[in-house]
């Protein structure tokens, strides 16, 4: 397995703050090969099919790789939130179409 993507068609109160509509992960041995971008794009396509026009996607502020993936997919930074016990989290809105 190279990685995984999760699409959440509804946001709980917690996911609306941190987590968002789409989460993805790539095993360390497969990073920096474009898999994360492919996973996020696939997730955005699925979200579009569910009627979600723009998806909330979040990542830790120090996760440089994920920041690049989200921005490459058209993510627009809404802001940064502090999460107790975790790194500050960047919140992006990404168009699904």
UniProtKB/TrEMBL annotation:
Protein name in UniProt: N-acetyltransferase domain-containing protein
Position of the signal peptide: none
Molecular function, one GO term: acyltransferase activity, transferring groups other than amino-acyl groups
Cross-referenced InterPro entries: Acyl_CoA_acyltransferase, GNAT_dom
Pfam family, one: Acetyltransf_3
Domain N-acetyltransferase: 1-97
Domain of life of the organism encoding this protein: Bacteria
